[in-house]
Amino acid sequence: MNTRRSLIHIVSSNKWGGVQTYALDICRHYAEAGWEVTALTRNAVGVDAPFAEAGIGLLHAPVGGFFDLASPMTLARKLRESPRGATVVHTHRYRDAFTALLAKKIANRPDVRIVTTLQVAKDLTGPMVEAIAVHPRVLYNRVKTADVIILGNTTRPFEFPNNLKAAMKENAYVLDMNETHPSVSVPRTVAMALSTALVNFFDEMAIKNGFYGMVATTPGVQFGIVTYEGKLVDKLIGSYLGLPSVDINVMLSAAN
């Protein structure tokens, strides 16, 4: 019985980034599970090196999009050698999915499965859809190191998987926004989670010569101020309470 299984991951960028890290994690996962894993890249050293260090096989092609015929031919040759009924091609871009489909046709391999991430949906719909896909292993690693986990609304009922519960830190804080009365307690782990943002805030404030310099040069801080120098500067609250408010930008301009 043939137990060979093959994953071919198309990585068409010539620079390293979040998508490439995600692709490498997937390749490692399947390699550890016993699959034959190959990364099809553009022969870019910055992309090839991490895959090679992880022991992932490399295949090179231009991967140039719709008018690139060399890449489908290269991939087709690889598909002809791959196990039947047990070969998957993973892509991240619509044009790469086209390359995989064409290679599948050239190789006469209708059994090959082509898997795409939600980035394809985003490419098709533009700014109307914000899409993200998280590989189970990536999610597991994030949960394992998290101090705070927030569960939001989902389109389908969601129950935290047992393997993720077991991976969580003992003192991790989970806030489910679907609960009618979520906990209002703030354990030490929440303070730890906020500390990074506060440290950066105070560092920036020191660079800008204190609080007043921070307010004068940082629009985000201005938006969060309700009263300034004894004056109400939040127009929304002023409108709701029927009280006059002052434009904080006018006050800052006058101070300068």
Physical arrangement of strands within the biggest beta sheet:
3-2-1-4-5
Spatial gap, N to C terminus: 81 Å
Overall number of strands: 9
Instruction: Write down the overall geometry.
Output: elongated
Mean pLDDT: 79
N to C succession of SSEs:
EHEHEHEHEHHEHEHHHEEHH
- Count of alpha and pi helical runs: 12
Low-confidence stretches: 119-125, 180-188
The fraction of residues in strands falls at 5-15%
Largest sheet: 5 strands, parallel
Could you estimate the helical fraction of the residues in percent? 40-55%
What is the CA-based Rg, rounded?
A: 26 Å
Q: Give the helix/strand class.
A: alpha/beta
How does this structure look, described?
With about 260 residues, the chain is of the alpha/beta class. Helix content is about 45%, strand content about 15%. It is built from twelve helices and nine strands. The chain has helices at about 20-30, 45-55, 70-80, 95-105, 120-125, 135-145, 160-165, 190-205, 210-215, 220-225, 235-240, 250-255, and strands at about 5-10, 35-40, 55-60, 85-90, 115, 150, 175, 225-230, 230. The strands form three sheets. The protein has a five-stranded parallel beta sheet, sandwiched between helices. A two-stranded parallel ribbon has the order 6-7. Strands 8-9 form a two-stranded antiparallel sheet. Helix 4 links the parallel strand 4 and strand 5 (about 115). Helix 3 (about 70-80) packs across helix 4 (about 95-105). The chain is elongated and about 75 Å long. The termini are far apart. The model is unreliable at about 120-125 and about 180-190 (pLDDT under 50).
